[in-house]
């Protein structure tokens, strides 16, 4: 039977999240041993560059505020950027993990914008469960955009880069 309290675990996780923010880290992983067959493994990840699209809902407002709100709403579609995941040349993540643009810190990136790639060539690595997974180019072409930064977490299906 465990002799530690769940409240202590919650406080510990909150302290880790504060440490993550305070030191501008993106990921923190800790294993806390309480005894034989009793431990707590925590992985705290701060997702960077999250883009959220929110559909505008009709809002009742005072007549004086309506023209300004309508002008802002009308400008929104013109300012919206094409969804990279819908681009025909998008290379998407086959798994959840952390994306790395080079084989090791300080090494030359696998590709850069303007690079010509061959089908099957490694374009980046995704670390998942302490395993480095090489992500191959699905087709030959030129790298037009790199949509992730080195060391950022990615989700399944997230666009990584665009090859045309």
Sheet of most strands: 4 strands, antiparallel
Count of separate DSSP helical elements: 2
CATH level-3 fold name of the largest domain: OB fold (Dihydrolipoamide Acetyltransferase, E2P)
Could you spell the SSE succession in H and E letters?
HEEHEEEEEEEE
Multimer state:
single chain
CATH architecture title of the largest domain: Beta Barrel
Stretches where pLDDT is under 50 for at least 5 consecutive residues are: 49-80
Radius of gyration: 22 Å
Q: How is this fold's topology laid out?
A:
Layout: H1 6-22, E1 27-35, E2 38-45, H2 66-79, E3 90-92, E4 97-100, E5 116-117, E6 122-128, E7 131-136, E8 141-146, E9 152-154, E10 159-163
Antiparallel strand pairs: 1-2, 3-10, 4-6, 4-9, 5-8, 6-7, 8-10
Pick out its properties:
164 residues, 2 domains, OB fold (Dihydrolipoamide Acetyltransferase, E2P), four-stranded antiparallel β-sheet
What does this structure look like?
This protein has 164 residues and is an alpha+beta fold. It folds into two domains: 40 residues, no CATH class; 78 residues, OB fold (Dihydrolipoamide Acetyltransferase, E2P) (Beta Barrel), CATH 2.40.50.100. 19% of the residues lie in helices and 32% in strands. The chain has two helices and ten strands. The strands form three sheets. Strands 3-10-8-5 form a four-stranded antiparallel sheet, with no helix packed on it. Strand 1 and strand 2 form a beta hairpin. The longest helix has 17 residues. It is elongated and about 60 Å long. The relative contact order is 0.16. About 20% of the residues have low confidence.
């Amino acid at each position: 039977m465990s002799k530690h309290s769940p409240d202590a675990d919650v406080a510990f996780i909150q302290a880790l999240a504060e440490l993550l923010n305070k030191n501008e880290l993106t990921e923190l992983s800790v294993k806390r041993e309480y005894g034989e067959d009793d431990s707590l493994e925590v992985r705290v990840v701060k997702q960077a560059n999250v883009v959220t699209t929110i559909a505008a809902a009709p809002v009742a407002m005072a007549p004086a505020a309506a023209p300004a709100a309508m002008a802002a709403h009308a400008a929104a579609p013109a300012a919206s950027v094409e969804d990279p995941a819908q681009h025909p040349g998008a290379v998407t993540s086959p798994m959840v993990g952390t994306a790395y643009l080079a084989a090791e810190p300080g090494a030359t990136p696998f590709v850069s914008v303007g690079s010509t790639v061959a089908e099957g060539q490694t374009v980046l690595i995704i670390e998942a469960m302490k395993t480095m997974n090489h992500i191959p180019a699905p087709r030959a072409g030129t790298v037009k955009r790199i949509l992730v930064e080195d060391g950022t977490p990615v989700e399944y299906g997230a666009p990584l880069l665009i090859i045309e």
